[in-house]
Amino acid sequence: MPPKRQIWLLMQLLPVMLVLTVLFGGALLLGVAQALGFAPWFGVNTFPDTSHFAALWSDPVFWRSLGFTLYYAFVATGLAVVFGVLLALALRESFAGKTLFKYIYKLPLMIPYAVGIALAVLLLGNGGMASRMMAFVGVIDDPSQFPQILKTHAGWGIIAVYVWKQLPFVALTVYAVLLGLGRETEEAAKVLGAHRWQVFWHVTLPQILPAIVSSSLIITAFNIGAFEAPFILGGGFPDTLPVVAWRYFNDADYTLQLRGMAVVVTLAIVSGVVLFAYLGTYRRFERKRGRS
């Protein structure tokens, strides 16, 4: 690209980049400053002060909360990716009602997470529709005997909401790539004697892997920082880190907001490390395969 063309493109991007830099970069710097003791509006200005991070990181409960946060994020992302890829592959096939189904599976994308949480309570709670239906057909004697799915640290309610919402996103992303690829390469592999699993593993998967990686990066970042589902459907103490930060921000002792900001900064650091490690691993894998 000619240098003048590059400069023109940079000038076109400059307004957007300035807005993003000021809004997000400025907020990040202010958050780090607060976590380090800069909060003159609270009468606190001990910058630079690492005591909030030290108190947070020395607490065993913090590490349990971090473990729950990553557990919900990784399990939900893994399930959404697996089922999303399977759904995308199924959408390439012809079946009755495919046109209608292509609209129905996208509905969770248009529904807020709060609605998904409400549906989880109505369906999976001990007095919900699933428990009443099982009691009606005689599987259990009373709805209260229904297995506890919500409000536990196993987090199946949280994971169910994440997967319900994010599976269509993965499927839509992968399906768009599959439509652009066509099926000529797969058919050639079959002609050469490859069975279905070999075709998927050696032909289809490498072609859709960039879409899988990009979509999983997005939903993992969201799941690590999500607040609503763990707050409403979680098992309580110890909470996930976003809920811990919220509790600090709502404490009567307003100086604990600096501890809450330390939680937020820590969460951003963990999220960044996880995502960069994941992306770096993927890039090394691609370089080994001879792709940049």
UniProtKB/TrEMBL annotation:
It comes from the Bacteria. The keyword Transmembrane applies. Gene3D superfamilies: MetI-like. It comes from Epibacterium ulvae. Belongs to the binding-protein-dependent transport system permease family. It is a multi-pass membrane protein. The keyword Transport applies. Residues 66-280 form the ABC transmembrane type-1 domain. It is found in: Cell membrane. InterPro entries: MetI-like, MetI-like_sf, Sugar_ABC_transporter. One of its GO terms (cellular component) is plasma membrane. One of its GO terms (biological process) is transmembrane transport. CDD domains: TM_PBP2. This is Putative spermidine/putrescine transport system permease protein. The chain crosses the membrane at residues 70-91, 103-124, 154-178, 199-224, 256-279. Keywords: Membrane, Transmembrane, Transmembrane helix, Transport. Its main location: membrane.
